[in-house]
Amino acid sequence: MHADLLPASGSSTHISVGDVVTEAGVTIPDVQLKLFAYYDATSADPNYADFSEGPEPGLDVQDRPVLLIEHALTGDGNLADWWPEMVGPHKPLDTTRYLILCANVLGGCSGSTGPGSTHPDGKAWGSRFPGISIRDMVTAEKALLDTLGITHVQAVIGASMGGARTLEWTLMHPDYVGAALAIAVSARASAWQIGLQSSQIRFVEADPHWHGGDYYETGESPAEGMGQARRIAHLTYRGELEMDERFGVDPQRGEDPYGPYRGSKQRFAVEGYLDRHADKLKVRFDAGSYVTLTDALNRHDVGRGRGGMNAALARSEVPTMVAGVDTDILYPWHQQEHLSRNLGDFIGLSQITSPTGHDGFLIEGRQMGQILQKFLLKAEHIGRDARG
Amino acid sequence: MHADLLPASGSSTHISVGDVVTEAGVTIPDVQLKLFAYYDATSADPNYADFSEGPEPGLDVQDRPVLLIEHALTGDGNLADWWPEMVGPHKPLDTTRYLILCANVLGGCSGSTGPGSTHPDGKAWGSRFPGISIRDMVTAEKALLDTLGITHVQAVIGASMGGARTLEWTLMHPDYVGAALAIAVSARASAWQIGLQSSQIRFVEADPHWHGGDYYETGESPAEGMGQARRIAHLTYRGELEMDERFGVDPQRGEDPYGPYRGSKQRFAVEGYLDRHADKLKVRFDAGSYVTLTDALNRHDVGRGRGGMNAALARSEVPTMVAGVDTDILYPWHQQEHLSRNLGDFIGLSQITSPTGHDGFLIEGRQMGQILQKFLLKAEHIGRDARG
């Protein structure tokens, strides 16, 4: 391993991974991925023995098992930011025992090459950025790990779009991956997901500030379309029971949605909540990336070119655990059951019970932490067996 | 009853019901509702005895029990058009035994007064049309029945937005209604529904052809925004299992959503399906009515001004049956269970089992027919008991 290429623990760096040729045949030259790495030295915490079956703490970084964490659609490589309860010293993703890597995806907007990046001609890629698949993202990540000189990862872990990449890792590079945990995901996009996701793409495209995807040099951005997409997306990420408990039919403070005339400034509380989420995403996320990654989710299908979905899963050789959320409407529980029945080397199914829906893997820290610990012990045992 | 005011059986007429004052205090002058009526003479069908516990067939219209059917959001008074398996001679809504009435709602666009109707000043109401509630629709319908000289209805039956009106009928006019069947509806809008519905309103409002609701004289109409709203709405009306069985990840015929570059003309089959539904609605439904009725669904709350939702249901004096669809995500089954636990005079709960989701009440004709027959026998017995 070229440990000298790693950023300091908890920080990030850009890694050049060379050209990436997409599944559909387009070359993206000189791809960069922004990588975060976590590998703290052992601390003197006296409560440290609670994970004693795991890998030895405090090893030099090149001797540590590698965990590759795959972020979701609007996540990024900054794992400690979006999964703070899971990662750190003595947390489930224990930074004193593992070398933990998390990279922003190909097509993203958090430091990796995407539609908003600079094309070799000096302008933004914009509409010239190709359609990419989940597999193309994995292709770029494999090139990243090769660049780092990493020859094996103990486990790949991801939820939602990260779960889709996790499944593709097991099918594209089975010898490279010791074990996998796919969370809140399916073997392929469902028609219902494609319907929702393609609608979101259209909201962005319908915004006149989109300029066909080439808005970067115009000084405008399709914030309104992004907001519309995010409101709908967020409604599929959350459970209706949880939202109803929080907001019910309450009006937004100081507004009256029951007045004599309907008005866009007379909102229900849930509208104010969705507006806040929409406003946050408009600022922090590039519309071109949102469209590109959403399209990649539409293209997700482990069966493409592999004789169909179940044939592909059956040939999977990587021990894989599956988890999901009971109230998820975007990736309903039956999809996780489907994976569990068809994966070639299935090692367990865990359910997060929560009213929150799909986002349960981000919200239910205690349950998610238990699932990660259970999985990581399995992965460690599998790793020991493999090392003989 | 003023039978002379009724249209011929199977046809429609406009009825003037006078001014309607909305719950929020706005007067809509000279409201008209478009009414369909069904009251066939007895036919000579020899298979006719299968409903022998029901009301006597072939009575003169003024002697028949009245059934009031309440249509859903984009339905209308033309009951035989949207519920063809349910209504007709010897069908569950037996046109030889009942006088069956179905009127387009206040705010609608199928012949009743709504935003697209002519204001007293000669231009369209447009943005001047007030916000209306489910209760305001019932107010107009009660004025319609009063105009017809009808003093009692044997049953009110409705699904979805029609179910919301059905519940309000039982609370606003308990002495007038013999029994009620509320299908695929809840006691009030949920936060999740409001989130989805308010998003749909915004799609229409964001279309530059909306012109603040006053597009009627511009020669333009917000068809694009309506299409966006319809695509999302349709995804909440259908079950993901059924959609996935039909479309999966298939491409639209002749298009390639897996190509090197994403393109709006390279669609999945499910996108083509949603586009067809969007295109149909754009043509047949007025955007102003869509916004007004969607807003009315947001305002649906049987508890408003009645001491809360469960207190209102507990005081209900009309024998009420509840039905729903097991896979409905828009009005989930737990909402029908909630009604069944809280209604003051609850007479039964029936479940349509179907992969189709909310639209099951339109699609699963055999199951829906059985529920109607079961309910109508209950209503007939209740009516006989009341008549002594």
From TrEMBL, chains A, B:
Which family does the similarity line name? Belongs to the AB hydrolase superfamily. MetX family.
Q: Which UniProt keywords apply?
A: Acyltransferase, Amino-acid biosynthesis, Cytoplasm, Methionine biosynthesis, Transferase
Q: What is the lineage of its organism?
A: Bacteria, Bacillati, Actinomycetota, Actinomycetes, Mycobacteriales
Q: Where is the AB hydrolase-1 domain?
A: 65-362
The species is Corynebacterium suicordis DSM 45110
What EC designation does it have?
2.3.1.31
Any idea what this protein is called? Homoserine O-acetyltransferase
Leading EC class: transferase
Q: Which Pfam families match?
A: Abhydrolase_1 (PF00561)
